[in-house]
Task: structure prediction
Amino acid sequence: MKPILYFFTTLLLYSSAALASPNFLIIVADDCTYNDLPIYGGANAKTPNIDQLASEGLIFNQAYLASAMCQPCRAELYTGLYPMSNGCAWNHSASRPETKSLPHFLQPAGYRVGLSGKTHVKPKTSFPFDKVAGFDPGCVRNPTRPHDLSGIRDYMSADDPFCLVVCLVEPHIPWVMGDASQYPPAKIKLPPNLADTPETRNHFADYLAEVTYMDGQVGEIVKTLDETGKRDETIVLFTSEQGSQFPGCKWTNWNTGLHTALIASWPGRIPESARTDALVQYADVVPTLLELAGVDSETAFDGTSFAKVLTDNEAIHREFAYGIHNNLPEGPAYPIRSITDGKFRYIRNLSHGELYIEKHLMGGGKLNNPYWATWVGDDPMANPESYDKIKRYMLRPEEQLYHTLEDGYEIENIAGDAGYDEIKARLSTALDAWLKAEGDPGAPVDTKESLEASRAGKHLYGKQE
Result:
C-alpha cells in the first residue's frame, strides 16, 4: 500500500473508532465519605486501585449529589432529575411512575443497560435495568455475599454497546468486611467532625477496612473490563455516593454528606492524572452520557452535559450545586435545603427549633452505631469537644454559611459574620430561585402524608404536578 493511501486509511479507521458510541461502566460505592479517600486528602485509607484509576483519568474536585441518602441520590444519578422532579425526595420512597432513566434513553440507541449489585430505586417501570448477577444486592447483610465477576464479564463481552452500573455495598454498615488490623485505632487520624472516643476509633477502623475492601472490588471490576479488550472504547466512572454513616456525613447537607468522589477515565480521550474544579452534580451525568453516545432525548433534564469538561478541557460547568434533605422515615421530620458555589456553602434548617435525630446513627444496635452512646456518655467537663460535636449535630441554627474551601469539614459557621453578608445573600437568593423552580415548598414536603403519597405514586409536590 502506498504511504499516502496508508495514512488516509489509518486516519479514517481512527476517526471511525473515535466517533463510535462508547461503552459506559459506572462503579458506585456505598456510603463512602469522599475526603476519606487519599485522592481527596484522606489520611488513613489505603486505596491503590482507586488511586490507579485516578492516575488514568480525570478527578473532579467539585462533584455533588442533591441528597445524602442512598435512594434519592441514585434516582438523581439515573434520571438526570433532582429529587423533587423525579419524586424520590426521601429515603425508602419512590420516583414518579412516569419518570424515565438510563435504560429508556440508551436502549433505543442499541445499548444494553444493566445493573449489578444494589438497586434501591423504584418503581421498576421507571428503572428497567437488565439484572446482571455477581454482586450482593443487600447492603446490610453480615457478611456481604462473595462476588462473582462472570456476570459482568459476560455482559461487557457481548457485541452490542453497553452501559453497566455496578453498585457495591461497601462501605455501608455493617462494617464487617476487609482487614481492620491494617488500621490500628490508636494510629488513626480522626476527621475533625468526629468526637474522639475509643469506640469511635474502633468503628472508624472497621469502616476504613471496608473502604479498602471496596477498593479491591474496584480493581477487580476494571481488570475484568481490561480482559474483555474493551477498555479503550469504554468510559469508566467511579463515584463514592454520599458520606459515611458517621455524624455530619450521610443524612446531612454538610460538605461531607453531599460532596462525592468522581473519577472519569477513557484512554486517549479523557486526560490522565488530571484534576478539574468544574462544578458538577449527579443530575448532570445522564445528559453527559447521552451526548457522548450521540443520543438525543426530548426529556427536560435538570442537569446538563459536562462532556466538554471530559474531552475538551472545559474548566467551568455549572454555577451552583443544590442540596435537599427530608428526614422521614429516618427520624422525625427535619427538612434542610442548601446550595454551594464550590467555595461557600449556605444551609437553611427549616426545623431549626427542633433537635435533629437520625434513628439509625443514634439508635445503636448491631447494624447501627453504638459509638454514639460514648459521645453522649463522655464527661463534658473532661472532654468538651464531644459535647460541642453533639450540639453541632443535634442543635442547628436557622442558617449556616461555611467557607468550604478553607473549612472542608464545615466546622465554623460564619452566617452571622457581617463580612460575608453579600455572599450569604447571593446564595440565599439563588437557593430560593431553585426551590421555586422545583416546586419545593420546603417544610410541607417532609411530612408522613407527603411520604406516603410518594410511595403510592401520588406525589403532592414538585414542578411536574
